[in-house]
Amino acid sequence: MTHSPLLRSDQTLFRDPDVFELTFVPEHLHHRDAQVKELAFLISPALRGGSALSAVLRGPPGTGKTTTVRRIFREVREETKKIVPAYVNCRHDHTLLAVHRSIFTQVVGYAPPSSGRYLDEIKQGIATRLHDHDAALVVCLDDADDLIVAGTYNTLLYQILRLYEKWDVRKAGVFAVTSNLDLNLGAEADPSVWSVFHPTEITFLPYSRTEIREILADRAQQGLYPRVVPKPLLDRIAGIAAGEQDIRIGIDLLRAAVLLAEKDGRRRVTHADVTAAARAVTAPALRNRAAGLSEAERALACWIAERSHDGADMASGTVFEAAQEYLPVGKTTYHEHLNALTRAGIVDLVPQKGRGREVRLRYDAGDVAAACSSPDRTCETPNSTCEIPN
Ligand SMILES: Nc1ncnc2c1ncn2[C@@H]1O[C@H](COP(=O)(O)OP(=O)(O)OP(=O)(O)O)[C@@H](O)[C@H]1O
């Protein structure tokens, strides 16, 4: 067997580490052509001296909403001075003043003085610059649900969209973005806002495993030296990210696995690097999933983890029968708990030929046991038993 020569301490596997930063805007935006086209269409009237239209962008976390907007805004900035895009992260800026200060900074090119500036002066500064340059404003309010929590959503939309009523500027377009699928940002708008908002709804569906694989391959090619991550390992990373329905997990995992190889002085990522990195990267996601379960559901997850670790038969019916010895629950309750674990994304129920369904853990059994133990009930893999409350 031949071994590739070890890395010297001054060598790195990263051609460009920035490619793995979450703020990185990729050169090629995969699988978002429809959304890019729709946003470009909404902005286009402003290129012809009119006003941009508005939109609500909705999709689960890590589906490329922010990246798509940033990508379009970058192109707009490069192509024309007739449109001024302003991106506001509402997690950070959710008061009227903070949002307008952020818009001012991007429109005017420097921050307004921190003291002695009232909201109206900041708005006037924005409007004057837009008027002087005959430019149209397009604002992206990313994570706009934070504005609803802060109680500023409607006032802000009103003030941005109706800027033209007080100053001689064109009507602004607003792209409101949310990853909260239970929230309808359009419906949250008051009638006075709605009459000038009329957003087009743009949906971002989760990427499939193949799409994630392509995005990750592109990242690896841009950010790493050739052959650092063998193709089967890239497939495995894509599978883990697809299971989590979050491309970010894939990007983090790729970087973490390469860092482990680099730390060890190796030129190639191994299966063991991915396993170790996956633990670290998916642990917070798994903890979040477990936190949403009831004590009884967590106890069942723990028990399933132990059984899976021991290599026992995982057919759902067999698991139920074996569970009877330890877990005093009836069949209906057992299935309810099992369904809750499936919904939480901790187990999958995989149909088996003629044998009902197999209970399969999405994570390492030891990690599930660790995430689902509680102070009163420690789950250990292997061999310990869990007590399940009714
Ligand atoms: N289509 C894509 N092509 C290349 N990279 C992508 C694509 N979509 C997302 N990414 C990358 O995935 C990461 C997460 O994307 P992004 O922040 O745009 O998701 P989001 O939908 O805005 O998530 P959230 O709702 O949590 O803010 C970023 O690093 C981004 O560069």
Automatic annotation (TrEMBL):
Coiled coil: none annotated. ATP binds at residues 63-67, 207, 219. Residues 31-147 form the Orc1-like AAA ATPase domain. It comes from Methanoculleus nereidis. The keyword Heme does not apply. Keywords: ATP-binding, DNA replication, Nucleotide-binding. The keyword Metal-binding does not apply. Involved in regulation of DNA replication. Residues 213-278 form the Cdc6 AAA+ ATPase-type lid domain. CDD domains: HLD_clamp_RarA. InterPro entries: AAA_16, Cdc6_lid, ORC1/CDC6, Orc1/Cdc6_arc, P-loop_NTPase, WH_DNA-bd_sf. This is ORC1-type DNA replication protein. NCBIfam families: orc1/cdc6 family replication initiation protein. Belongs to the CDC6/cdc18 family.
